[in-house]
Amino acid sequence: MAERTIAAIATPAGDGALGVIRISGEDAFSIADKVFFAFSGKKIIEHKPYTASYGEIKENGNRLDDAVALVFVAPHSYTGENTVEISVHGGSLMLRSVLRLILKNGAYLAEAGEFTKRAFLNGKTDLTKAESIMGLISARNDAELRLSRAAHNGKVSKKIAEMESVLVGINASIAAFSDYPDEDIEGLNYENFLSSLQNLSLELQKMLKEYDSGRILKEGIITSIVGKPNVGKSTLMNMLVGFDRSIVTDVAGTTRDIVEDTVTLGDITLHLADTAGIHNTDDTVESIGVKLAKERIDTSQLILAVFDSTEPLTNQDFELLEAVKEKNTIVILNKTDLADEINEDKLKGFNVVKISAKEGKGIEELAKAINECCIEANLNPDSAVLLGERQRACAERALDGVNSAIEALMMGATMDAVGICADDALAALLELTGKRVTNEVTDEIFRRFCVGK
Ligand code: GDP
Question: Residues enclosing ligand 1, CB less than 6 A?
């Protein structure tokens, strides 16, 4: 048990109906007894754990507020320590005055993330679950919440634990194999090592891909709307954003710069840019926009290439298709309320969606296509998705280790050399879940949490 008893306000700053102050540590009960007085007359330790008791907060005999106390007895609490959660009226001044009283009576103000850090140090949670808590709190869309929930429920730890045990098995076999190379031990052979390592490599690669998709869900997709002047890019942007941001006129080339906005389509957030029409131009202002549009294509994660379905495809359209064909692209045939002059045979291999931006038709189909190409292609909804760059870096190190082990094995290196690489991979996975992690890394992780968590 950590030596200092800590306390902090656990609810957000600002006024609310209720506010909660948490006290955790060896002296949590005795400190709570100095500030909270149950109407039943019972001391904290006499309360039935996990039931609420009603009373009041008093300072030098003066009543500060009504309060409800919840008692958690170690090790069955969030932190694994004795914990008391006191609810009072949720005004920020009220909460601060009660917190001050608790600190005056012997508790220390908790540092950012200290409750969760204690939970980790007391073995109540591993790092993947602890880090998912930040996601649960800060999720900005349903998908992010779902991924954080899955990690919090232990999906990531379970997946990594499976990989760890495969590596432990491989390492043990390699040790046995290198100690007794001449013995014919069943199952211990080159082919089996190779296939186990190759499977592990594939699983780690999949996890890293899913991480990218998960990040896209979390952070949004950098998206460019491109196409010739007048095909309806600004109108599409407006349809997506839901209000008039770009200038819409009948004169070709009126979108001179890049207009940006962020929209949420179901689970997905798009960071949209309506770029200037990509075409050759002598107008200086416009040509700057065209240059920006070309640069933007290079850095986009998704291209919405818009075509006017009332006109057959021209050479310029084919040039655009050529420029975006290697990218993650959806071809949008716009103005389908008017006519359909485009020969779709020419668009083979592209993901095509028909819309009428002016009439707001086709947005669901577009959202579905975006979801399919950006998320579902790499992300099964039941996936255990790594959360955060720290976890990704550990998984990448594990993959490097596994791939080096495969390479060593194939090059005919000694089993000891193969074992060293596999050990590196194992160390990276143990760091990912926190089973083997330095104090510096732990401190850094929890510093990113909020106070009270
Ligand atoms: P941009 O230059 O590609 O940004 O094109 P705009 O969005 O400025 O649209 C050019 C013209 O096409 C405007 O007059 C729009 O009202 C019209 N337009 C855009 N989308 C549609 C559509 O789906 N149907 C019809 N009928 N007209 C459209």
Answer: 227, 229-235, 248-250, 255, 277, 334-335, 337-338, 356-358
